[in-house]
Amino acid sequence: MEKKGKKRIVLVPVPAQGHITPMMQLGKALYLKGFSITVVEGQCNRVSSPSQHFPGFQFVTIPESLPESEFERLGAFDFILETNKTSEASFKNCLRQLLRQQGNDIACIIYDEFMYFCGTVATELKLPNVILCTQSATNQAARCIFSKLNLEKFLVDMEDPELQDKVVESLYPIRNKDLLPYGLGPFEPLLEFRREAINKRTASAVIFNTSRCLESSSMSWLQQELGIPVYPLGPLHITASAPGSSLAEDDMSCIEWLNKKKPRSVIYVSVGTVTQMESKEVLEIAWGLCNSNQPFLWVFRPGSILGFDGIDSLPEEVSKMVSERGYIVKRAPQIEVLGHPAVGGFWSHCGWNSTLESIVEGVPMICRPFTSEQKINATYLESVWRIGIQLEGEVLRGAVERAVNRLIVDDEGAEMRERALGLREKLKASVRCGGSSYSELEELVKHLKIE
Ligand code: UDP
């Protein structure tokens, strides 16, 4: 039974790992501050065994008109647009029911920026609402700038190499060409999604999973631009860790394997939970890793190689070599792996969660981004924090081998590790009492109680 008088926060995550995890961490942080938490989920990609991992949370499922299979057919952004259109009515019913059953105890709806239908419903029911951005603040700032451009003129400008490389004023070192969305399917649904998300925004504040010490200029820029309070509370996984938000099971056997390796000798390879790679690139990575003579732990997520089932469907010679020299899993306990003393570097697609997790463990990275959002993170890792080596263009085995050796063997890698460890300390300080993320959380709690 909930204690009487507790205010309720309704959380609405996107059904994808990189979005669910920070939302559940935020829920945990607010639960510890005395709020009741209700998580509203769709039918697909639900948090497994929620009552075991999140005692005290209420989970509610809203019927979804779109089955998971539609994701494949429609592509990510058409799927999101459709979800936003079809979820409005059922979400409204769900909230009405919650209000009836539990009294008018909803302090706020906190929704992933991708689920903008929540803003419309909240306004209709006169409920306060706040947005959670699960991507970097710099990425959000880049999107704001892009949305105000004269697109036709910009696309013409982008044919000029000098203009492509021109740094965007107020967003150093992000260049004009980094503003162009890529790697996320067709352009039009993505732009429509961004327009809708802005037009339907009624939120009184925006929460970011970042820390001022990582992205201070982007945060200041956003504060001015958005004109509502912004709360950088991250990294949320250390503000309030929330084990159990995994949508799939981790293979813990890799920890045993890591236990037998020398300190800082292993390169951990993972491209997150969504990215798909061309088989040609996978083969070059495989050869490069093997030629580097460094041990590697590689997450081969089913479906992560276009046209292949998994490691066994690679040419026999390669799958044999990879299995002998490295350790392969379908899913790793990533935070534990990054924190293991044997891990010396992280080959990553630079998703925002992976980026934060690597920095918090003081692990430098090889950055191989696949989308514009990941590219912005990679640019920061390489040029602002200077803890990453970015691979651009076609990736060939020689470049892979060199990058691994630069990171694991050379002094350059040791210097990056030093800087990563310095950032790690700053991040840890930011979530401790008196630190910036700690204080921002206090401010957010005040904001939620006042509303
Ligand atoms: N993850 C994990 N094990 C894996 C692969 C991914 O635990 O084998 C987790 C990782 O720790 C991170 C999330 O999945 O929290 C991936 O989020 P990210 O933003 O890095 O990338 P996305 O999957 O959204 O592209």
From TrEMBL:
InterPro entries reported in the protein's UniProt record: UDP_glucos_trans
Keywords for this protein: Glycosyltransferase, Transferase
Superkingdom as given in the UniProt entry: Eukaryota
Pfam families xref list: UDPGT (PF00201)
Family of the protein in this entry: Belongs to the UDP-glycosyltransferase family.
PANTHER family noted in UniProt: GLUCOSYL/GLUCURONOSYL TRANSFERASES, UDP-GLYCOSYLTRANSFERASE SUPERFAMILY PROTEIN-RELATED
Protein name: UDP-glycosyltransferase 76E4-like
Lineage: Eukaryota, Viridiplantae, Streptophyta, Embryophyta, Tracheophyta
